[in-house]
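Collaborator request log, item 7. Partner lab (contact: R.S.) asked for a structural prediction of UvrD-helicase domain-containing protein to inform their binding assays.
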Amino acid sequence: MPRSSTGLHALTRQQLTASGSPHSRVYVEAAPGSGKTTVSALRFGLHRFAAPTDARAVVAVSFTRSATEELRTRVARQWGSASLRWPHRIVTLDTLLCDLLFHLLNEGVLHWPGGHTEIDVLDSWRTALPTKPSRIKPVLRVDGGHVVIRTVNELQTASHPSAMHFKEAVSAGACTHDNVREVLQEALPAGPARRALISYFETSVRSLTVDEVFDANDLDRDIFSLAASASSSLTLVGDPWQALYQFRGARPAAMAAYIRENGFSTHYLDDSFRWGTDRQAWLTRRLRRRVPVTLPAGSARDADMVLALKWKALWECDPRVLPLAIKPGVGQVQEAICTLLLNEIAQNALGTQAVFLHDALVTLGLDKEALATTIRPCLQAAVADLKDGRQPALVWQRLTPSLADLIPGIATTQLARKPIRALERLQLRLANDQLRPGLTCHQSKGREWNTVAVKLSPADASALAHGLDPAREDHRALYVALTRARLNTYAMS
Ligand SMILES: Nc1ncnc2c1ncn2[C@@H]1O[C@H](COP(=O)(O)OP(=O)(O)OP(=O)(O)O)[C@@H](O)[C@H]1O
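Returned to partner:
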C-alpha cells in the first residue's frame, strides 16, 4: 500500500481496527516495527477530536522522554499542533504521576513538609545534592496524610544524599521522581487518596493511552486501573517481549494478568514494516518462536550501531566503538566533565550527542548555551591534547583550572581526583577515524538502524543457542537489540 504524508493510506486493516475500536478498554499487542506508535498516535487523534465539547483531556503516556517525544511528533504531524493544545497532552508517565501528587497536595489529601503544594521534581539527587556511597537511603513516607522523611537500610550500597541534605531539600519543596513514586505508593492504599484520584480522572481525563505498557510496575498498574474505574477510556499498547524495566520494578506477567482479567478488547499487530531483508524478518520470527539462532559474525566497521547489555562491554570490545555514555566512578563532577568530553568527541565524529549530556549539564549548573559559548573551547583544547597523545593526567591538570574558573558551582578541590581510566578510553577512541556509536540494549528500545552489530556476552550466546525465553529480562533485552536493524544484524566478532 502506498504511504501518504499523513501515514493514513499506509494503515493495515489490523492497525485501523485497533485504532478505531469503540471499546473503552483496548489492548494492542504488537511485534517490533508493526505500528505500536502509529496506532497510539492515530487513536490519540481520534479520541481528541471525537468529542469537541468534552473539556476533559485526552492523554497519552510513555516511559521514556525519547519515546514520548516520538509519539508527540507523530501526533503533531498527523493531527496538527492543535491536537496537543492544553489540557490534551503526551507526557512521560513520571509527569502524569507528578500531576497526581500535586492534585493530592492541592486538595489537602496530602501535606508536604513546609506546606508546599508545587514541588520541584528532579530526575535524581545526584544532580542537585552531594551524594556518597551508603546503604542508608533517605526516603519519603506518608503518615496520617503527612509526607514525612525517613531513612531505610538498603541491602546494597548506592549513591545517596545525607539525611540532613535530603531533609533540607524536601522541606524547601524539592524531591525526585522516585520520591513522587514513594509518596503515591504509600498514599494509594488509603481511601481518601484513591477517591481523590478517581475523581481527578472522572473530571479531568476522558482518554488515557499507555505506550510500552509492559514497562509498568505495580504502582503504574494501580494508576491505570484507577483511570479505568473512573470510566476514562484506557488503551494499553505494548509487546511483552520488549519489557525491559524489571530492575525498576516492572512486572510484565502481572500486567498481562491485569489485561486478561479486566475485559480488554485485544488487537494484535503482526506485520512489521521494519524489515528490509528476508534475513531480518526470518531472524525475528525465529527469536519469537524461541528456536536456536546463529548470527553471522561482523565487525564494528560493518555496523551503523553497536549494542550490548552493559556500557562496560561496549568500552571493552573494540576501540572503534564509541559508547555514548561514560562513568569514570571517581565522583559526580568528574563524570559530568568526562560526559562533556565524550559529547565533544561524539558530536565531531558521529554528529550525535552523549546520552547523559542533560544530566552532566545539570550537575555542573550549566545550560546548553553556556556549554556552546564558554565551556566548549576548553573541551576542544582537552580533546586536541588527548588526540596528540598527551598524558591523561596532564590533560586533566590543564583542563580543570579553566573549568573551575568558568563554572561557579565547582571548586578546584572537587576536581583533585583524576578520571585517568576514562580519559585513556577516550584517548584510545580518538586514535580511530572510523568510529561507530555504541548504546545499551535499553537505550536502543524503540529505535532502528540499517545494520546493527551486537556484542554478545557468553550468556547471550548461550541464550541464542538454546532459544530465547521471554520470561527472562536479559533474554528480552537481547531480543530488543536483535530487532533494531532494518537490514542486517551481526554478532561482533
Ligand atoms: N501500515 C504501514 N505501512 C507502511 N509503513 C508503516 C505502516 N505502519 C507503520 N509503518 C512504519 O513502520 C515503522 C515502524 O512503525 P512504529 O514505529 O509505529 O512501530 P513500533 O511498533 O512502535 O516499533 P518499535 O518496535 O520500534 O517499538 C515506522 O517508520 C512507521 O512509519
